[in-house]
Amino acid sequence: MSGDMSKTKDRKDSDFNDAIELMFFAYRDFIADPDVILEAHDFGRAHHRVLHFVAGNPGISIADLLDILRVTKQSLARVLRDLIDGDYVEQRIGANDRRKRLLHLTPKGIALHGKLIAPQEKRFNEVLTALGPQVFEQWKKTMRLVINSEDRENVDELIKRSRAARTKNET
Amino acid sequence: MSGDMSKTKDRKDSDFNDAIELMFFAYRDFIADPDVILEAHDFGRAHHRVLHFVAGNPGISIADLLDILRVTKQSLARVLRDLIDGDYVEQRIGANDRRKRLLHLTPKGIALHGKLIAPQEKRFNEVLTALGPQVFEQWKKTMRLVINSEDRENVDELIKRSRAARTKNET
DNA sequence: AATTTATGTCAATAACACTGACCCTTTTCG
DNA sequence: CGAAAAGGGTCAGTGTTATTGACATAAATT
Q: Which bases on strand C have an atom closer than 7 Å to a protein beta carbon?
């Protein structure tokens, strides 16, 4: 028997609820495709992340990788051990600083990384086709603003480096 | 070198790499805020998810909740035990089917849920302010297309129900 | 020479999810 | 009505992934 309808309904709340829900489900499906491939290799998401950031930052040091991933050294060590033993990642001793172990993907690592991101690229390609490049560009701007303001420039840098790495890869 | 380096460099690849990177970092920061609050209550993300979907689907049954969360009964049980013992969630025996335990948030649960989503709402509110409602709406459309096509309507339903629950909550 | 940096590694712990097995209560159906 | 099915609860064991803490080694720095 309620029926008391207040005219002053705050409509913005529900809009944000939409957004929260969409973040949850979109990310879940987005990450689900690689999971299937990873399982076949007895790898997990941690392996994926390492592959991804080593691919985008060839020659990255352990310390810098830890900084990006924000995990402990011990967590990374286990994952990295798998990837090195499986010949997906290679360590090269730094030329300037011989303490550093600079990480690179092997051809095998590059191939796996390609397989992992393929379904995600396909997903975004479908979005691009359906909504057009302008909407897609604005989606990126929006996502960038969802990132903590103090981290946005770092992400810009990462993306830039990743693009450079891919371009150089053509040699 | 795959032969021809024509002027038509495949630019779309790097665009999708942007997108993948943005998904990763945006989601990470998006989820980081609630984590801090949850820790203070000795809760984890699993507790958050239960609070969220019970909030959006008052009176949901255990089976239906399991279906949304896609976890096992045993996994849910542990989390639900914490929430019920802590007086955040309440079980009511179904009126029609007395086997069912229908879940509702207590006032305490509603309060905690509010605190958890507040920073996320704030984040999106900043986006809305910076880019305007039109871009934000298109962001939502884009995110919806990132979701598996077979799940989109389910998500639509969830969002609709959640909005209805919030509206009815005014009694 | 002493210290710091970059990395590796052993050990213990915790969070979280899983499988499997079994139980009780209530509803459904022959 | 009585048996089977549905909804839910719980105990036990396992596995993955991440954590903290403590130490060890090699190379660079001061």
A: 5-12, 15-21, 25-28
Distances (CA, A) of A165 to A162, A170, B7, B109, B165: 5, 9, 19, 48, 49
Amino acid identity for residue B103 in this structure? L
Within 8 A of B148 by CB-CB distance, chain A residues are 29, 32
Spell out the domains of chain B, with CATH numbers in brackets. 14-168 (1.10.10.10)
Strand residue runs (E) in A77-161:
89-93, 101-105
Whether any strand C atom is under 7 angstroms from the Cβ of A75: the reply reads no
- Put simply, the answer to whether A18 touches B171 (Cβ < 8 Å) is no
CA of A28 to C1' of C22 (A): 34
User: What contacts A66, CB < 8 A, 6 or more positions away?
Assistant: A72, A73, A76
| Ordered per-residue pLDDT tens for chain B, 171 residues | 444 444 444 445 557 999 999 999 999 899 888 988 898 888 988 999 999 999 999 999 999 999 999 899 999 999 999 999 999 999 999 999 999 999 999 999 999 999 999 999 999 999 999 999 999 999 999 999 999 999 899 899 999 999 998 876 554
Q: Is B159 on the interface with A (CB under 8 A)?
A: yes
